[in-house]
Amino acid sequence: MQGVVKSYDPGSGMGVVVCDRDLNEYDLAAGAxxxxxxxxxxxxxxxxxxxxxxxQAASLRLGSxxxxxxxxxxxxxxxxxxxxxxxxxxxxxxxxxxxxx
Length: 101
Fold this sequence. Notes:
Elements: E1 2-9, E2 14-19, E3 25-27, E4 46-51, E5 57-61, H1 65-68
Antiparallel strand pairs: 1-2, 1-4, 2-3, 4-5
């Protein structure tokens, strides 16, 4: 499921996530951040989550724009043949030296 953090208390670890699909609010399960990249959450942060057996938001994780169905990001980006996929790959083209003459 995908949603937005409505509230989060870093001291207690308690919080609420609002589901995008049905706008239902789900309390965070105890340990919802364990094993994830999150150490804390902020209001309005977009997350992907599962529901546990008690109907609480668990296993919070980051989602990409593709996962979350953000308009304009409905396809996995493809690379153009012959183009580098990472900025900074290889030496700069001739004439593009970062050092001034």
